[in-house]
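Please study the protein below:
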Amino acid sequence: MEANVSEQTKDTVTDRQLVIDTLNRLRPADLLDFQFGIGSKPRLKCKLIGYEETKYIVVAIPELARVSYKDQLTLGNGCIVRAIIEGDAGQCIAFKSTINGVINHPQALLFVDYPKQVQMFSLRNQIRITTHVPATLIYTTTDAAGKDESTEAFHGTIIDLSVGGCRLKLPWHLGQGRLSAQEVLVKILFPSRPDEPLLIEGEVKSQNRHDGKHITLGIKFGEIQELIELFNQLGIEENDIS
């Protein structure tokens, strides 16, 4: 799960003992999210193996990443590390670090410097998660005279979701041009509640070509209490999240 929270909620911890206490909340096998520079490869997710307080943090490198990330996994390369502290803490943490060791045998492991400061974000604010949730985009079109109305519906996947909006990936070939709709309905079907789809009014704020067969839409939601409650009560379960 990937979390991004607005800058207003950021709290920077610099006290050495508080940094240690914060990182001690992480547990072996927790996923850490590594970002190697802006515009680089997608973030790399690694399982935490352990750490030596004030010295280093060690994670397992996924087998496929040993080759595909070999240019990033080099000594001295900088990175941003993010993680979710689950349970009562309800926080996302982030810190800058530097790679100080890589080994390949008997298991591929990555060592990064133990941080001197950590940024903390509350998950009770506007959390944004990476998802693969099925959704349907619904909107109304009119004829050239502006009279006859018809309803269009396109099935896609929400790849990024918050209480304020989403990014929706839709099958959309090059020959279809741009989506003309602006005011839309988004029907979201969470796997954990298949008989209770969520219908949300939204406004298309952006659209970009994802590839030759898909587009991604940036959609802003109006405030909907049910979605807010889903986030606050952790109603989106692990099975719903990539």
Notes: Residues 163 and 188 are 13 Å apart (CA to CA).
